[in-house]
Amino acid sequence: MDWDDIRVMIEVGRANSFTGAAVSLGVSKATVSRRIATLEAMAGVRLFQRLPGGSALTPQGEEIISRALRIEDDILDLERALRSMRSRPNRMVAVRMSEGVASYLITPVMAGQALGPLGKAAMLHGVDLPPIKIVGFDPSINSDIDIIWQSGGKLPPGRPNDRVRKLADVHFVPFLSDDYMRLEKLPSKFDDLYRHKLVTLDAYTHFRGDGWENWHNLLSEGDMPAISTAWSCSVGHLTLRGAGIGVLPTYSPLYADGLRVTEITSPSMIASLWMVCGQDTAKDPLVKRCMDGLWRIFSSADWMHP
Q: Which alpha helices (DSSP H) does the chain contain, by range?
């Protein structure tokens, strides 16, 4: 089957006229008639009624043209993708993420370092991501893919047709440092933390469910005011330097040997990482390659869950 025959059929269906289709395509009416005759011979039925003032689709023609239009959409989408790759040979995939995800998870992958859960997974499984541009949560900056924290078993916000995929469930526990262990009496249970200096991340206030409510209560009712910061790296540094007990992801010791998990039983504190991409953007071959690569890395990582 010749795609040009299908194009002719689509144009005749749109123009309701062999003559109109010929003008639109820049060919003769005889060429249009010949190509339609070829399709009708293949189908064994009339696809168009010939009328004094033009033409009209038969029921069989309606069925065939609906399929032809879907094929046309796919071909046009492919052409757009190919033109996009040609016109933007050095294009980078813009991925929106938090500072912590960028610093501790994605940057080692981009640098080719076997550091942290994702860096090790990428090296072990040979995952090669396309060039990535990390963008923050400034709404004025467009992104192709968003990596979003969400808690409480909820789906991330977005549009109904977005492509959404959970990347990982990340567990959080209280950490302290060797310096803090030498200076302070250690807690024997989770509720004892209210007597200690606590270090937290501003973004944790959005986490709900599981043990997060317990943590929020400790911060508000503790004997000492908590240290709260907007940067996850600051939580790690403050905890490592003995400023207090901080809640961090369980994989944090991969970046700092001096961090110690408290020997108390903590309520479950979990937050999920989700990957979100717009329906049309996800059709871009480069974006799709990035999404598939991120999924492979995240799904094969050792998150050091308790």
A: 3-15, 18-25, 29-43, 59-87, 99-100, 107-110, 116-125, 178-183, 212-221, 232-240, 285-300
